[in-house]
Design brief:
92% of the residues lie in helices and 0% in strands. It has 153 residues and is mostly helical. It has a domain at 8-109: Helix Hairpins. It is rod-shaped. The two termini are 43 Å apart.
């Protein structure tokens, strides 16, 4: 008969935490990719707008138009910088999520190893118990057979 593993609640908890860390890491990864896409979109928009500004200056543009282009490019530059900051935060969160996932998986593996050792120990104990019972039964049978031989002599 196998003895219950006293740390089974911790094994189950470690699996739950590992699953939660995996989900969180996936969410952080999706968020980081979305923020990266926003940055790339802003950079492309700024590049396109800058090219439009250069074309307008080649074709001749008044000073009010130049000022408007420059003001908008400045706002785009600010938006790009803000998005870069958001990207840095997303990358940091992703790294922290990756570390949390690694730690959760490491703990889960440790508890799984303990549970496996317990199961193996229980199997070995069961084998020993079964062998002892078989040996006792064989001894009793041999003793009875020995007594039977003495009765017939």
């Amino acid at each position: 008969m196998t003895k219950n593993f006293s740390l089974q609640p911790l094994v189950d908890l470690s699996h739950h935490k590992s699953d939660a860390a995996t989900r969180k890491f996936g969410e952080l990864n999706i968020q980081q990719q979305a923020e990266q896409k926003k940055l790339e979109t802003l950079l492309q928009f700024r590049k396109d707008y800058h090219e439009k500004f250069q074309m307008a200056t080649r074709n001749g543009i008044d000073s009010a138009g130049v000022t408007n282009f420059q003001n908008f490019l400045n706002r785009l530059d600010e938006a790009v910088e803000q998005q870069r900051h958001v990207m840095e935060q997303a990358n940091l969160s992703l790294q922290m999520g990756k570390e949390a996932l690694r730690e959760a998986q490491q703990k889960m593996k440790s508890f799984d190893t303990l549970a496996e050792r317990h199961a193996e120990s229980s199997r070995q104990q069961s084998k020993k118990t079964e062998q002892r019972i078989q040996d006792e039964q064989a001894g009793q049978l041999a003793f009875r057979n020995g007594q039977s031989d003495h009765q017939f002599r």
